[in-house]
Recover the amino acids of this structure.
């Protein structure tokens, strides 16, 4: 199950209480205070992990609580501090304070960490209050409570290249052909119901991450269809690959489809239109593919790449175009 947004409550651990104790040993009739300090409560830490690709593991548990610190003991023994609670989240997770709807951290790099709730400090034992005028203090302080807050986690995938287009345009097929990702592929629209990431190798030392999102339809920018919920996953992509089906199953116009998707991208985030765009005519083996290619060149003054993810035609040309634009996008 793919989950890209959850609301959870995090409660850090309480610090251990300080101890009131006095030294009691044989031959030491006037032993002084020896109460130790309490241990620190455990903090709750979010850690970005490249091997985690969804927030699904957080969806079923709404409250996350760290352990409390241990109280202090006699003989100046300090209580043990609790271990921090580490919550792994995907790279690209944004952390919002729910009460203020304020972005407080963007975990957009591998192994990035953020203390979302800090554990309470331990209380002081009575040995801390010993003075020349008060040699037998009978006071200690309690441990401080840990921080509590409600947060919203929102995942925006980190990808160099994002695939956009109408349903059944061939995005999943292209991703599976160029990478080891295995999204569901079929001949009907909306086969893809959640985003997929795939790593595409250029050579032994270089490559890029490609993201496939569910197909977009008219009105996606206002919440229509499956694509709206996942458009945020291409907001970080430096290059957009816009796939055009030359002979759509719904008998729509390929140029009209291109304009529709561009309009939806603009309504969702105007900055998406400023990204480098590579227009691709898919399914080159269809009779209308060459005709649609010429229409895009004459009517829109664009120079699309003609490919077939099934036969492999044009894939090397597409890879070369992506490679040429990667340094600029990064």
């Amino acid at each position: 199950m793919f989950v890209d947004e959850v609301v959870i409550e995090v409660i850090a651990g309480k610090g251990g209480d300080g101890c009131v104790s006095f030294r009691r040993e044989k031959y030491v009739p006037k032993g002084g205070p020896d109460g130790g300090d309490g241990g620190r409560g455990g903090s709750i830490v979010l850690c970005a992990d490249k091997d985690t690709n969804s927030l699904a593991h957080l969806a079923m548990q709404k409250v996350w609580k760290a352990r409390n610190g241990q109280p202090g003991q006699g003989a100046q023994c300090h209580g043990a501090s609790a271990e921090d609670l580490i919550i792994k989240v995907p790279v690209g997770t944004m952390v919002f304070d729910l009460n203020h709807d304020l972005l407080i951290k963007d975990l957009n790099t591998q192994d990035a960490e953020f203390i979302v709730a800090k554990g309470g400090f331990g209380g002081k034992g009575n040995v801390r209050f010993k003075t020349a005028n008060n040699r037998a203090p009978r006071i200690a302080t309690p441990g401080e409570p840990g921080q509590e807050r409600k947060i919203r986690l929102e995942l925006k995938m980190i990808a160099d290249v994002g695939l956009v287009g109408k349903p059944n345009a061939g995005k999943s097929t292209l991703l599976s052909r160029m990478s080891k990702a295995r999204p569901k592929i079929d001949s009907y629209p909306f086969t893809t119901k959640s985003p997929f990431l795939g790593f595409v190798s250029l050579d032994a030392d270089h490559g890029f991450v490609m993201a496939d999102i569910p197909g977009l339809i008219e009105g996606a920018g206002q919440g229509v269809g499956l694509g709206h919920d996942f458009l945020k996953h291409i907001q970080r992509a430096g290059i957009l690959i816009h796939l055009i089906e030359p002979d759509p199953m719904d008998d729509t116009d390929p140029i009209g489809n291109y304009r529709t998707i561009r309009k939806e991208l603009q309504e969702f985030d105007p900055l998406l239109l400023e990204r480098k765009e590579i227009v691709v005519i898919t399914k080159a083996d269809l009779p209308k593919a060459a005709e649609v290619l010429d229409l895009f060149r004459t009517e829109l003054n664009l120079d699309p790449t003609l490919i077939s993810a099934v036969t492999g035609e044009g894939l090397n040309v597409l890879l070369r175009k992506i490679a040429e634009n990667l340094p600029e996008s990064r």
Observations:
- The first helix runs from residue 56 to 59.
- The chain has a mean pLDDT of 84.
